[in-house]
Amino acid sequence: MSDLTHFDDQGRAAMVDVGAKPETERVAIARGRILMASATLARIQEGQIGKGDVLGVARLAGIMAAKRTSDLIPLCHPLMLSKVTVDLSIAPPDAVNIEALVKLTGRTGVEMEALTAVTVAALTIYDMCKAIDRGMRIEDVRLVHKSGGKSGTYEAE
């Protein structure tokens, strides 16, 4: 069997052994958005959501989620991330765009951490605004950039 597989010699799920891989700088960027009623977006902008600063809380939730990805996604390695940013921007009339950048120097990539950060930030917005808008939709969560490691650089089209 290959050293980089999620299966052991008996065909059972196992975490990949990355111990022999060289450490390289690894960066991943993911993006997504949450669509909502324009009135909901206006209330977020005006600070009129009863649960507080929606974008500030969502940013913090995304950062915290990136750091805890191995607790959420089976077989992900626990990583010592060197940088996590989550940027949220208002996209009138009805959306918040979310971008997460995750970085480390290590033996495995950070794509799952970036995707988790975006997803949890969007879910946090949903949670904070659901009392006034249950029709919100989380869309287009995707990896847009990955660099470092054996597989090289990936850029989404």
From TrEMBL:
UniProt keyword list: Lyase, Molybdenum cofactor biosynthesis
Residue ranges constituting the Molybdopterin cofactor biosynthesis C (MoaC) domain according to the UniProt record: 15-149
This enzyme's EC code(s): 4.6.1.17
Active-site residue list: 127
InterPro entries referenced in this protein's UniProt entry, alphabetically: MoaC, MoaC_bact/euk, MoaC_sf, MoCo_biosynth_MoaA/MoaC, Mopterin_CF_biosynth-C_dom
Catalyzed reactions: (8S)-3',8-cyclo-7,8-dihydroguanosine 5'-triphosphate = cyclic pyranopterin phosphate + diphosphate
Ranges in a coiled coil: none
Protein origin, superkingdom: Bacteria
Annotated residues for binding of substrate: 75-77, 112-113
Gene3D superfamilies tied to this protein: Molybdopterin cofactor biosynthesis C (MoaC) domain
Pathway, per record: Cofactor biosynthesis; molybdopterin biosynthesis
Subunit structure: Homohexamer; trimer of dimers.
Family: Belongs to the MoaC family.
Protein function: Catalyzes the conversion of (8S)-3',8-cyclo-7,8-dihydroguanosine 5'-triphosphate to cyclic pyranopterin monophosphate (cPMP).
Entry protein name: Cyclic pyranopterin monophosphate synthase
